[in-house]
Amino acid sequence: MARVVAHLGRPETPQETADRKAESSRRYRSSKTFRNLIAALLVTVAVVFVVVAGVPRGEPTPPPAPDVPALAAGIEADLGRPVLSPSLGDGWRVNQATIEGVGGTEAWTMVYVRSGESGFLRVAQGFDADENWVGQVLDGTRSAETVDIDGITWNVYRPANPSGTGNIDYALATPAGPDYVLVYGDAAPETAALAAASVTSQIEQLREVP
């Protein structure tokens, strides 16, 4: 016996029964989709939270320092003559080592900095260079004195306007066979001398290159 619907006051017709069930199914599916959407959003938020929480905090890890001896050996093999590989000792690290060009001259240049302090020191080997290259790097500064370091005579440069030479206020330069070696930066003269002394044997080898 068909059930009587209160608001109709009579039994449902087969079509009304079908319509009522269809609407009930539609509402159920709609509510289920909404619940699924909420659940998916909650899962997404949880995943994002885990990812963010897992990201390490603090200072980023600095990139590894260039391997100067290995790079120098590779360049040496290409050029067929000695290539500088300085050693400044404890407290100094190299943060750049590359071949760069100044005034049409290519130079193997290493940039050293002291850990925890300001200041820098560059050691450069200008390939097939002369004193004119030094003048280009040092903005025309001329040498007025020399110093002997480990048996090598170096020209001393004291730029009068460091701001015009990239904060360089002291430099040492000496010919080395076909090349020219330049040690320069804003480090103390004693530190520049230490760097110069560390490449004495390589300069002597270069001076023997025909």
Sketch the major β-sheet. Answer: 7 strands, antiparallel
Count the E strands: 9
Taken from the alpha-carbon principal axes, the silhouette is: rod-shaped
Write down the overall mean pLDDT. Answer: 82
**Alpha-carbon distance between the termini?**
118 Å
Radius of gyration: 38 Å
Question: Structural class, from secondary structure content?
Answer: alpha+beta
- Strand numbers in spatial order across the main sheet: 3-4-5-9-8-7-6
Low-confidence stretches: none
Helical segment tally?
A: 5
Helix fraction by DSSP (H/I, runs of at least 4): 25-40%
**Element pattern in H and E:** EEHHEEEHEEEEHH
- Share of β-strand residues: 25-35%
Q: Could you characterize what this model shows?
A:
With 210 residues, the chain is an alpha+beta fold. Helix content is 36%, strand content 27%. It has five helices and nine strands; from the N terminus they run ββααβββαββββαα. It has helices at residues 14-54, 68-79, 131-137, 189-197, 200-206, and strands at 4-5, 10-11, 92-102, 105-114, 120-126, 145-149, 152-157, 170-176, 179-185. Strands 3-4-5-9-8-7-6 form a seven-stranded antiparallel sheet. It has a two-stranded antiparallel sheet with strand order 1-2. Strand 1 and strand 2 form a beta hairpin. The chain is rod-shaped and about 120 Å long. The chain starts with a strand and ends with a helix. The model has no long low-confidence stretch (mean pLDDT 82).
